[in-house]
Amino acid sequence: MSHQKTTLGEFIIKNQASFSYSTGELSSLLNALRLAAKVVNHEVNKAGLVDLFGDSGDVNVQGEQQQKLDVFANKTFIQSLKNRNIVCGIVSEENDEFITIKGQDKESNGKYVVLMDPLDGSSNIDVNVSVGTIFSIYRRITPIGTPVEEKDFLQPGNAQIGAGYIVYGTSTMLVYTTGDGVNGFTLNPAIGTFYLSHPNMTFPEEGKVYSVNQGNYRHFPDSVKKYIKYCQQEEEDRPYTQRYIGSLVSDFHRNMIQGGVYLYPNSTVNKDGKLRLLYECNPIAFLTEQAGGIATDGQVDILDIVPSQIHERAPLYCGSSSMVKKLLEFIK
Ligand code: P6P
């Protein structure tokens, strides 16, 4: 029963003590994300009824057709993060440049920066397939009170102090880490409260699922083609099942619960892959490692990559450690 479960708000307070560097500001940041998640969830669930389906008519920095819900989610998360004077800057998939946030005193006093994909997989909205929000949190590098700079956002993933996602699916869940394991919270929409439903989430060591868009097979490196053939072979523990929703958060969430490996390789079409390093690969990689899995670009751990541009892309292979290790035998 819900009344026996810990709420997200209670969990954040209880674990605040473990934020050795926080005086409650990180808790407040997490609560800002919690609030925005509930507002976006409400709109995602009724998009078709209030004409929030479909294209906004604009195109984002990636050249992708912006969906109306993308725009709504972006505005909602930015507004919620602005309101608490704890964040000094935001990078969003939907904005070309980083956003500077000043407090009422017109100063950049926030201690943190947030990087996000406000509505990942949004091309699935009109066909009623799960979509998600992905977020990544760092301490700023520049001194408090000075203008936020691009270097505040170009930190390697291993400097993250928090990361997570909201999946707007058959149920809405918020899954996050602050470096002390991964915990999942399910929204009770009747009362608008997230409850701890998946404590200490960990990747099964082994899995039977591989997630890749096989429509791109002909563009993949030969090593990846060989691994896919390996997955399909009739041998002791194969063939595996291929599952691909086309929504990173959904494919990742399923694999973390059931076990599996997700692949978005570089290819002759996308030389650096399609996924963005700062607000897709890095937060997913932080969650992966906190859940006992492996996340790599095929050569190095995702979290060790030093970014050079805020919208740069990287290949992503992540999931159950034994499956990723087998994949790396082919790639390396
Ligand atoms: P493709 C959605 O656009 C996204 O960024 C991820 O959520 C998803 O895993 C991937 O791209 C799907 O890309 O090329 O397979 O359609």
Write structural notes for this entry:
With 332 residues, this protein is of the alpha+beta class. It has two domains: 3-198, Fructose-1,6-Bisphosphatase, Chain A, domain 1; 209-331, D-Maltodextrin-Binding Protein, domain 2. The chain is 27% helix and 23% strand. The chain contains seven helices and 15 strands. It has helices spanning 8-16, 25-44, 68-82, 222-232, 248-258, 277-290, 321-331; strands at residues 55-59, 65-67, 87-92, 99-100, 112-120, 131-139, 162-168, 172-177, 182-188, 193-198, 209-211, 241-242, 261-264, 294-296, 316-319. The model has no long low-confidence stretch (mean pLDDT 92). 6-O-phosphono-alpha-D-fructofuranose (P6P) binds next to helix 5.
Domain count: the total is 2
The total of helices stands at: 7
The total count of strands amounts to 15
- What strand line-up does the widest sheet have? 4-3-5-6-7-8-9-10
* Low-pLDDT stretches: none
N→C terminal distance: 48 Å
| Approximate shape | globular
Task: Encode the helix/strand succession as letters.
Answer: HHEEHEEEEEEEEEHEHEHEEH
Query: Could you tell me the mean pLDDT?
Result: 92
By secondary-structure content and strand pairing, the structural class works out as: alpha+beta
Per the CATH scheme, the topology name of the largest domain is Fructose-1,6-Bisphosphatase, Chain A, domain 1
CATH architecture of the largest domain: 2-Layer Sandwich
What gyration radius follows from the Cα positions, in whole Å?
A: 19 Å
Helical residue percent band? 25-40%
- CATH superfamily placement of the largest domain: Fructose-1,6-Bisphosphatase, subunit A, domain 1
Domain Fructose-1-6-bisphosphatase class 1 C-terminal: 204-330
EC number: 3.1.3.11
Cofactor: Mg(2+)
Pathway: Carbohydrate biosynthesis; Calvin cycle
